[in-house]
Amino acid sequence: MKKVIFILGLIMIFTVSLVCSAEILTFEFSALAGDEANASSNSNDPNLSSSTITRGAGLTASGNGGRFNATSWALTSISDAVSGNDYMEFTITPTGGSQFSVTSIYIQLQRSGTGPRGVALRNSVDNYTSNLDQEYLISDVTSTQNFTFTFSQANSSSAVTYRIYMWAESTSGSGGIGDGSGNDIIVNGSIVTSSPTITLSESSLTGFTYEVGSGPSSEQTFTAEGSNLTDDIILTATTNYEISETPGSGYTSPITLAESGGSVAETTIYVRLKAGLSVGDYNSENITASSTDADNKTVTCSGDVY
Predict the structure, then answer these.
(1) Coil, helix or strand at residue 140
(2) What is the mean pLDDT of the chain?
(3) Model's pTM, two decimal places?
């Protein structure tokens, strides 16, 4: 029995590792003429924005069907390519508070007879200072060649740009990504999604009071903020309480706190017991904060009119 359990455990661990690493972004250039100013990704994880590949300022677009192509590549070394802005780049952008990790980037490329002979990958994490994996030699042939850059980039919550640098035998030699079968760029990795969250500074407010005929009550405050959101935060008060973003005025219900980039910045909310109420207790009445897919949060208000 112990052997069976051990084997099953290994199978489960192996299965999880396969699920965690997958294609999160791809480009395919078979329909290109080659000299387009840019080209869009053909697939991306739902938690990533669509990506666009462009050329560095040192390159000249050059037509060649089936690939994203260029001439004017640097000569001699990757260092020359870096200083001359001879690269092709694309950016991976997570959405809705997600994080992405990368384990490898696969590319297909093709060259003319005097085209690129060396290729390296760098990214904006270190301002394109060092190679990811290593520089690879491009064979002196015109058939499609494949390269896989293997590296570890974990849990990026903001956009990261990747540059493919190349140097060539001649500045007139052309070369670019593509002209093979299937996807021409494949980014392998994983996505971690975070649940939308609303945070309120207080769970209850008490002591709202006034003498009948002299309302409303004095103001009290709490703050509201949100992270990893996909929609605005809506604050709704009960019939006997009212809320505002401005002290002394603007009282209403509901209030909308606009989401931007998955977040709502910390916002002060003013609360008071409405004027015109009859003598009595107005306890355990909730102000509710809600947003799509987030758990509702409440501030419970209690007070009285005497």
Answers:
(1) coil
(2) 92
(3) 0.66
Q: Which residues contact 213 (CB under 8 A, 6 or more apart)?
A: none
Q: Which two tokens stand for residue 66?
A: 């089936």
Tokens of 226: 């949100």
What tokens does 117 get?
């002979």
Instruction: Tally Cβ neighbours within 10 Å of residue 252.
Output: 10
Annotate 251-279 with three-state secondary structure.
CECCEEECCECCEEEEEEEEEEECCCCCC
| Residue 140 tokens, joined | 């002196």
CB atoms within 10 A of CB 99: 16
Q: How many residues does the chain have?
A: 306
The pLDDT tens digits for 235-245 are 999 999 999 99
Decide: helix, strand or coil at residue 115: coil
Tens-digit pLDDT profile for residues 129-143: 999 999 999 999 999
Percent of the chain scored above 70 by pLDDT? 93
59 has pLDDT over 50: yes
Task: For strands 204-210 and 87-92, give the pairing.
Answer: unpaired
Residue 263 φ then ψ, to 5°: -130, 155
